[in-house]
Amino acid sequence: MLAELEKPGPGSSSRFQTATFQEGVEKLTDLKPGMILEGVVTMSRPSAPLSTSACHQDGLVHISAMSKTFIKDPRSVAKPGDIVRVKSLEVDAPRKRIALQHAT
């Protein structure tokens, strides 16, 4: 039974990737506008912005900041679980809000 569990399953990848959080960015107040970060997409809906965890706090990438061209559905650019690079545009620490832009 253990030998079967060790075998890779269908569609599984031999490499598991995770986002690398930037050193020195532990809390929201460490984040500054203009920083390029790597994060994981935590939510993506057609009618809502993309939510990305890039510094232990979710930030929002508005659909208009996801691409240089018009996109109808944010999921066409990134879906939950994807690792993306984002640029911080605005940090509102008192309200715990981060505005991000998809960095290519």
Secondary structure elements and their pairing?
Elements: H1 2-6, E1 36-45, E2 48-53, E3 58-61, E4 83-92, E5 97-103
Parallel strand pairs: 3-5
Antiparallel strand pairs: 1-2, 1-4, 2-3, 4-5
Q: Would you give an account of this structure?
A:
The chain is mainly β and 104 residues long. It has one helix at 2-6; strands at residues 36-45, 48-53, 58-61, 83-92, 97-103. Strands 1-2-3-5-4 form a 5-stranded mixed beta barrel. Helix content is 5%, strand content 36%. A hairpin with a 4-residue loop joins strand 2 and strand 3 (58-61).
Number of strands: 5
- Tell the overall outline: globular
Main beta sheet: 5 strands, mixed, barrel
The computed structural class is: mainly beta
Beta strand %: 35-45%
Spell the H/E element sequence.
HEEEEE
What is the CA-atom radius of gyration, in angstroms?
A: 16 Å
Strand order of the largest sheet: 1-2-3-5-4
Number of helices: 1
User: Spans of 5+ residues with little confidence (pLDDT < 50)?
Assistant: none
Mean pLDDT: 79
Question: In angstroms, what separates the terminal alpha carbons?
Answer: 44 Å
**Which range best describes the helical content: under 10%, 10-25%, 25-40%, 40-55%, 55-70% or over 70%?**
under 10%
Short précis:
This protein has about 100 residues and is mainly beta. It has one helix at about 1-5, and strands spanning about 35-45, 50-55, 60, 85-90, 95-104.
List keywords for this structure.
single chain, mainly beta, 5-stranded mixed beta barrel, globular
